[in-house]
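R.M. (postdoc): so does anyone remember the format we settled on? I'll just put the structure tokens first.
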């Protein structure tokens, strides 16, 4: 469905900064009113790939010349189809310019990021509504826990019992099999209190991805997420160390699952002939993604910092009495190596996390996901 300007006849686009429908041709503004249509479906253009037969459901404002599945530019318009209409939508509140600025500001804080990346040229940037299932889950459990108190010779085991029940409201799980789950999870949280009844006018000027993962396939994952949240809350009530669950008997029930669309900006730039896509939460402005860093600079800085921290730490430990170190140089060196090893281990874990972020940013799947939704725009 396309909404047209009453003044010049051009297609309107939703402007999240003004919460208005705006005409990019004449600048006219119109209220984004709730659609009076009671139907549970909406019309989309279906494009078919002549190479692999895949079908893409595209909102009427969009066009596509690239297959999302086989990558071939052999897309042709096939038909108009009725697609399931989401129950809710979370309108964009972050504009395209704000998303780009947020990414630039985040990259500028990166000490190990090259200036070429910090001053990137935008190759593609597009607002996409990602399909989500919002789960309401009732969860109750009787839990036996164990932990420890005291230290050294006084350390002893303690045991606890907790019984509780709760209702989780609108737990979010993305319903797109084409977008990496880890990417969508890192975009969270979304404030679902700002959800609006679905209005197709909000889609104007944006791509609305079609869900391809039924709610039933996500039941196990939804229960697992509720369980993790419940258990974490239970453990927080126990004042002990090394708290673990010894025995429990959870009862859980999925009350309902509502279909919703949540906003995200996808920005792609190219570095050393390789595309990188960074995501921005379209409601909060949270930036998700990592970029390549100067490995040599990181290694040198890391080693020097580790040695410096270890050395000064042991100067303090030994009370700055160099004679003590001379009397037992072997022990001093051994202690320095232990602390340095701990420091290196923490650093490796941190950089593994950074590396994972970079892998998601340069993922061909992510690049394909957003590129397929931008060709022809």
């Amino acid at each position: 469905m396309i909404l047209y300007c009453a003044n010049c006849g051009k297609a309107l686009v939703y402007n999240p900064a003004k919460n208005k429908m705006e005409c990019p041709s004449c600048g006219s503004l119109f209220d984004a009113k709730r659609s009076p249509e009671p139907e549970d479906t909406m019309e989309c253009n279906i494009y078919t790939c002549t190479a692999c037969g895949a079908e893409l459901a595209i909102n009427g404002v969009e066009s596509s010349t690239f297959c999302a599945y086989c990558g071939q530019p052999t897309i042709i318009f096939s038909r108009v189809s009725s697609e399931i209409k989401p129950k809710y939508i979370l309108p964009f509140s972050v504009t395209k310019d704000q998303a780009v600025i947020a990414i630039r500001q985040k990259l500028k804080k990166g000490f190990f990021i090259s200036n070429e990346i910090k001053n990137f040229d935008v190759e593609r940037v597009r607002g996409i509504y990602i399909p989500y299932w919002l789960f309401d889950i009732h969860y109750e459990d009787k839990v036996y826990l164990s932990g420890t108190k005291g230290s050294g010779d006084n350390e002893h085991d303690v045991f606890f019992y907790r019984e509780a029940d709760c209702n989780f409201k609108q737990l979010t799980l993305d319903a797109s099999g084409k977008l990496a789950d880890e990417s969508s999870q890192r975009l969270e949280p979304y404030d679902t209190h700002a959800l609006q009844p679905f209005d197709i006018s909000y889609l104007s000027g944006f791509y609305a991805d079609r869900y391809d993962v039924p709610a039933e396939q996500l039941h196990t994952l939804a229960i697992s997420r509720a369980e993790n949240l419940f258990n974490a809350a239970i453990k927080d009530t126990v004042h002990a160390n090394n708290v673990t669950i010894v025995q429990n008997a959870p009862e859980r029930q999925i009350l309902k699952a509502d279909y919703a669309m949540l906003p995200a900006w996808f920005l792609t730039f190219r570095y050393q002939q390789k595309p990188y896509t960074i995501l921005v939460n379209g409601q909060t402005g949270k930036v998700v993604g990592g970029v390549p860093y100067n490995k040599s600079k990181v290694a040198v800085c890391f080693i020097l910092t580790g040695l410096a921290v270890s050395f000064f730490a042991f100067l303090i430990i030994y009370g700055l009495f160099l004679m003590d170190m001379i009397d037992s140089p072997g022990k001093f060196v051994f202690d320095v190596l232990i602390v340095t090893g701990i420091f290196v281990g923490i650093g490796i874990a941190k950089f593994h996390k950074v590396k994972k972020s970079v892998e998601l940013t340069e993922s061909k799947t992510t690049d394909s996901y957003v590129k397929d939704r931008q060709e022809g725009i």
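R.M.: ...and that's the designed sequence above, right after the tokens. Also worth knowing: The mean pLDDT is 75. The radius of gyration is 27 Å.
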